[in-house]
Amino acid sequence: MIALTNVTARGESARGRVGAMVRNVSTTWDRGVLAIVGTVGDGTSALLAVIAGAIRARTGQVIVGGKSPEDARSEIAHVPLDPTLPDALRVEEVCDLASSIRGEPARPATERLSVLGIEALAKRRVRSLSVGETRAVALAIALTSSAKVLLVEEPLATLEPTAPGRVIEAIRARAAAGTVVVVTTASVRDATRIADRVLVLTAGVLAPLPAALAHANDGVVRLRIVVPSRADGTRGTSALVSALAEDAAIASVETHAFAPSPSDPAGARAASTVIVSGRDLVAVAKSVANAAASARVDVETIESAVAPLETIRAAVAPRPPPVATRPPDATSTAPHPPEAQRAMLRAPEGTTAPGDRPPGGTMTAPHPPEAPREMLRAPEGSASVGSRPPGSTGTVPTPPPPAARIPTPLRPPMPSRPPPLPAPKQDLRTTKAMFSEDHTMAMKDAPARPAVPRATPPPPKPTLERPITPVMPSRPAPMPDKPGDEKK
After folding, report:
1. What is the DSSP string of 190-218?
2. pLDDT tens digits for range 85-139
3. Domain residues of the chain, as ranges?
């Protein structure tokens, strides 16, 4: 059994992004298949990691099989979206390693892989597998293990259209054997096909999904039909579409073809998807059955169309409580207590409750009991503080008036600085003329300055002239001797 109580946790950060967070998740599941619809950003991966014990919850309690996730790891099989297998080993060696870790008896790898029809991958090395083949191997090992809790993320992802049927059958068989299965997926269609109960996880908040809300309900019925290719490689989609087009109950027909993916195991066949729509579900289903029989076409799957995830989230999202409005002319008064409480708060007749004020009277203080009153009396002949003479009323003594406070003299206000007077406007030509006349008169009245003799520059220093050395003529090159000069 899996029990979550007010669990809050944050997933691991990857590729520089902060991990998604789950907030106050509470749910219990003890049998069958539970599907949680949501994306990785909503916290689906983080929620499965918390149940598997890979991430510790910040708050709340997680119970798996009556233990904490850390103590129950040997009973949990977790298949993440991107599983990691030892690269240096072969697939059959990975199967033997998984059996030895769990303490299970050794089984042939082909037997464990045959649950998904991928026994042809037993001899291949892990590093040569594609992403889809790696996920298929990890899922086959988890489905054939002795784990009591099975956690699978996107079980039908990266599979060709005819393969999900085998995966669903294997998961349903493990759930029927008593295994608690929890799957997460972003596809509403996959969740409704595989699970007994569906929940929606939106931004870390978990909410139930009614079965009636999961299917499209806009007045048009849609059915999705998966038709595999025939053994000779031909497709029977054309004959099926022709038979459906002649039926009056069918409003529209759409087809989609899928080729076998390179990551799929050998033997996978191509398939086509036919989507038909109409007004009456029973009439549309009968038309599909009659068309398949007349066209002699093998049908792999027939399922109804589902509503988009965003539409479902908008319908199941918690709404804030309505805010109470007050009429414009109403006043906010405190609510009066009920009559029963009012009667309990009333004092008995003929008595005065503490703090009661008689009509037109003054507030009186309660009298102390006799024993404390005797202890508080002052000796005879002395007056105590607050004592009252005989015949006086039981009013509270008036305290002495407080001492008169000497008022602090106020400082006289400082006179404010008057604003500057605006400068008179003058004509620019008049201002220039006035400035020119004042400058000329000032130059005339100023005494004449004595002339300052200018300094005579020093004579230049004589330069010594070097004697010119005559250029000696170069000696001519000797002429070669003639052959006749040697005889002379």
Report:
1. HHHHH-SEEEEEETTEEEE--HHHHB--S
2. 998 899 999 999 999 988 888 889 999 999 988 888 999 999 999 888 898 899 9
3. 2-209, 221-307
0.85 cut: is pTM over it?
Answer: no
342 vs 41, residue with greater confidence: 41
Say if CB 208 and CB 316 are below 8 A apart.
yes
Most confident of 287-301, 391-405, 459-473: 287-301
Reduced to 3 states, what is the DSSP secondary structure of residue 121? helix
The amino acid at 49? A
- DSSP run (H or E) holding 288: helix 281-295
Task: Decide: 268 and 260 in contact? Cβ < 8 Å.
Answer: yes
pLDDT of residue 8: 92
Nearest Cα neighbor of 186 from 198, 169, 177 is 198
* CA distance linking residue 166 with residue 272, whole number of Å: 17
Q: Give the position of tokens 């030892």.
A: 86
Q: Element (H or E) spanning 95, and its range?
A: helix 91-102
Give the CA distances from residue 431 to residues 215, 439, 441, 443, in Å, rounded to whole numbers and listed in that order.
Answer: 93, 12, 16, 19
Element (H, E) at 226: strand 221-228
Token pair belonging to 487: 């005889």
Rounded CA-CA distance 208/200 in Å is 6
- Domain covering 2-209 assigned CATH 2.102.10.10 in the classification: no
Instruction: Fold for 221-307, please state it.
Output: Alpha-Beta Plaits (3.30.70)
Poorest-pLDDT segment among 62-76, 139-153, 184-198, 460-474: 460-474
CB atoms within 10 A of CB 47: 28
